[in-house]
Design goal:
heterodimer; A: alpha/beta; Rossmann fold; about 30% helix; B: about 300 residues; 7-stranded parallel sheet; 8 helices
C-alpha cells in the first residue's frame, strides 16, 4: 500500500516571532525554519507502518518555495522513499494546498494520506479535512493511534471529552495529534542517503490548480500586552492580593 | 443575509460552546438560525430555541448523525447551506473536524478560530501561537468560520422563543463508522467553561503527586484542573486537560500555573486569562513574564499552604 505524507516548512517552534512594524505580517527573514512538528509525527507514523509491512512506499509532498526541498529531504531522512515539491512563490492558503494535494493524490493513488493536524504558523487546522472533502473520502482527524488492516483504518482520535475511535474505509485521510508517536532523530547516514532519493518538482499550473488566495490579510498586529505583574514574597500575601486586589476568590 | 450556527450538543443538551458561537453570529449582523443535527436531540433543539436572538432552529434527526461523524454532519450542513451567507461552528474538536469539510465542498476558504468580528466580511484571528493577531477579509460568497469561544461572551440560555423546524436528514455516507468512546470522567467544571483553573506541569513529578497536590486546591476553589503538555506527555494528567496551542484555549477569571515553565505553546492557551498566578521555583521561568502574581517557591510547600489559608 502506498502512503502519502504532506509536510510544511514553517518557522521553528522555538522561535518567538516578531510582527513587522508596518503591520504587513510576521518577520520571517533570517529566522530558523523547520518541518512543522505535527508533520514530523505524520512522517514517523508512515515510516512505522512501513516497518510493520503495512505500507510499501512513502511519498512525501510539500507545497511552497524552493527551500521546501530541505523539508522534503528531512522527510526522506526519517523514512520517506521519494518526494514531490509543488513549487510556487505565491502565498498558499489551506484550500489551495488541499487542491494541490488532491491533484497529487489523483496521480499517485495512495491508500493512506497522513497530514499534521495543524501548522504552527497559520494555526488553521483545515488542510486534512479539506483534502478529505475534495476527495470525498473519510477522515480521521487528531489521531493518537492508527491501525491499518484489511482495507480499513481504525483511528483513535483526541476529542474534547477524551478519546473516540472511528473506522474508516481506505483510502482515508488521517491527521496527527501530538501523542500519536515520538518522531525519531534523523541520523547522519540517513541524511546522506536522503540526498540520493528522488525529488520531483512540479508547478501548480502542471496540476491545473488555481492557487489564488481567497482571504486577504488586511493587517497583522501584536497581541495586547499584559500589564507587568508583581512577585509576592509568600502565600499569605498572594491570598490577600487575590482576595482584595484582584477580587477573584 | 442569514447566518447559520452549527450547534454542539450531546443530544440531551446544548454545549456551552454553542452559546458563545451564537454571540459571534449576532455580531455578524443578520438573522441567526441554529442547526441541531443529531439523533433524538429534541431537547438540545428546544434549548437552542430559547437563546435570545435566534430566529429559527433547524432540527435534523437521524441515526446517521448520532455519533456526529464529520462526513455525515458536513453533508447535513451542506444540505441547508445554500441560503446562508455565514456558517459558524464553535472552534472545538467537533467544529474543527467538520467546518473545513463544509468549506472545501462549497469551494470557499475557512476562517479558523476568530476572536473578533470586525464587520460582516472581516475578522480577527490569532496566528503563530497567539503571538500575532491577523485581520483577514473574505471575498467568498459564504463565510465558513470557526469561533474561538473564549473570544465571545456566552449568549443567554433563556428568553428567546424561536420556532423549531424539522428538516430532512441526510443518508449515512457509509465510508466511516463509530467504534467507541473513552470519556474522561470528571465531576469538576468543564475546563473551557471554568471560572478558575488550577494547572500543573512537569514539576509535579508523578500522576499521584499531581492529584495529591493539586486536587485539594481545585476542590477548595471549585476549579477545573488543567495541565501543560509536558505533564500530559509524562502521563501525569489525561490528554484532554492539556492547555495550549494544540490543546484547549481557556480564559478563566483566575489561572493558577503550578510548576509550569511557560513555553510559548502553553501561553498560547491561557494568556487571555483575567488573572494569572504562577508558582515556580525557577525565578527565570518565562511564566513570570505573563503572571499578575508570581510566587517563587517550591510548589510542594506553597500549594498545601495555599489550600490551608483559603
Amino acid at each position: 500500500m502506498k502512503a502519502l505524507v504532506a509536510v510544511k516548512r514553517v518557522v521553528d517552534y522555538n522561535v518567538k516571532v516578531r510582527v513587522k512594524s508596518d503591520g504587513t505580517g510576521v518577520d520571517i527573514a533570517n529566522v530558523k525554519m523547520s518541518m512543522n512538528p505535527f508533520d514530523e509525527i505524520a512522517v514517523e507514523e508512515a515510516t512505522r507502518l512501513k516497518e510493520k509491512g503495512v505500507v510499501s512506499e512513502i511519498v512525501a509532498v510539500s507545497c511552497g518555495v524552493a527551500q521546501c526541498q530541505e523539508t522534503l529531504r528531512t522527510a526522506m531522512a526519517i523514512g520517506a522513499d521519494r518526494a514531490i515539491l509543488v513549487e510556487t512563490d505565491a502565498e498558499l492558503q489551506p484550500l489551495a494546498v488541499a487542491k494541490l494535494l488532491k491533484a497529487v493524490v489523483d496521480k499517485e493513488q495512495p491508500q493512506l494520506i497522513i497530514l499534521g493536524k495543524q501548522a504552527i504558523d497559520d494555526d488553521c487546522n483545515q488542510t486534512g479535512q479539506m483534502l478529505a472533502a475534495l476527495l470525498d473520502r473519510p477522515q480521521g482527524t487528531f489521531a493518537s493511534k492508527v491501525e491499518v488492516a484489511d482495507g480499513v483504518a481504525v483511528v483513535t482520535r483526541e476529542v474534547d471529552g477524551g478519546l473516540e475511535t472511528v473506522k474508516l474505509q481506505l483510502p482515508a485521510i488521517v491527521t496527527t495529534d501530538l501523542r500519536l508517536n515520538e518522531p525519531r532523530y534523523v541520523t547522519l547516514p540517513n541524511i546522506m542517503k536522503a540526498k540520493k532519493k528522488p525529488l520531483d518538482v512540479l508547478k501548480p499550473a502542471d496540476l491545473g490548480v488555481d492557487v489564488a488566495p481567497r482571504l486577504k490579510t488586511l493587517k497583522v498586529a501584536e497581541p495586547p500586552k499584559r500589564g507587568a505583574g508583581v512577585k509576592v514574597p509568600d502565600v499569605a500575601t498572594l491570598v490577600s492580593k487575590l482576595k482584595n486586589e484582584a477580587k477573584v476568590i | 443575509m442569514s447566518i447559520l450556527v452549527i450547534a454542539e450538543h450531546d443530544h440531551g443538551s446544548l454545549k456551552g460552546a454553542t452559546h458563545h458561537t451564537v454571540t459571534a453570529a449576532l455580531a455578524c449582523g443578520g438573522e441567526v438560525h441554529v442547526l441541531v443535527a443529531g439523533h433524538n436531540a429534541g431537547e438540545a433543539a428546544k434549548q437552542a430555541a430559547q437563546i435570545p436572538g435566534v430566529a429559527k432552529v433547524l432540527h435534523a434527526d437521524s441515526a446517521a448523525l448520532a455519533e456526529q461523524l464529520a462526513e455525515n454532519v458536513a453533508a447535513q450542513v451542506l444540505a441547508v447551506a445554500g441560503s446562508y451567507s455565514h456558517i459558524l461552528f464553535p472552534a472545538t474538536a467537533h467544529g474543527k473536524n467538520t467546518a473545513p469539510r463544509v468549506a472545501a465542498k462549497l469551494d470557499v476558504a475557512q476562517i479558523s478560530d476568530i476572536t473578533k468580528v470586525v464587520s460582516a466580511d472581516t475578522f480577527e484571528r490569532p496566528i503563530y501561537a497567539g503571538n500575532a493577531i491577523a485581520t483577514v477579509q473574505s471575498a467568498d460568497k459564504v463565510k465558513v468560520i470557526t469561533v474561538r469561544t473564549t473570544g465571545f461572551d456566552a449568549a443567554a440560555t433563556s428568553g428567546g422563543s424561536a420556532a423549531v423546524e424539522s428538516i430532512a436528514a441526510v443518508d449515512d455516507a457509509g465510508s466511516s463508522s463509530f467504534v467507541g468512546r473513552e470519556v474522561t470522567k470528571s465531576d469538576r467544571p468543564e475546563l473551557t467553561a471554568a471560572k478558575i483553573i488550577v494547572s500543573g506541569g512537569r514539576a509535579l513529578g508523578s500522576s499521584d503527586k499531581f492529584n495529591e497536590v493539586l486536587t485539594p486546591l481545585a476542590d477548595k476553589l471549585g476549579a477545573a484542573l488543567g495541565a501543560s503538555r509536558a505533564a500530559v506527555d509524562a502521563g501525569y494528567a489525561p490528554n484532554d486537560w492539556q492547555v495550549g496551542q494544540t490543546g484547549k484555549i481557556v480564559a478563566p477569571q483566575l489561572y493558577i500555573a503550578a510548576g509550569i515553565s511557560g513555553a510559548i505553546q502553553h501561553l498560547a492557551g491561557m494568556k487571555d486569562s483575567k488573572v494569572i498566578v504562577a508558582i515556580n521555583k525557577d525565578p527565570e521561568a518565562p511564566i513570570f513574564s505573563v503572571a499578575d502574581y508570581g510566587l517563587e517557591a517550591d510548589l510542594f510547600e506553597a500549594v498545601p499552604e495555599l489550600v490551608k489559608s483559603l
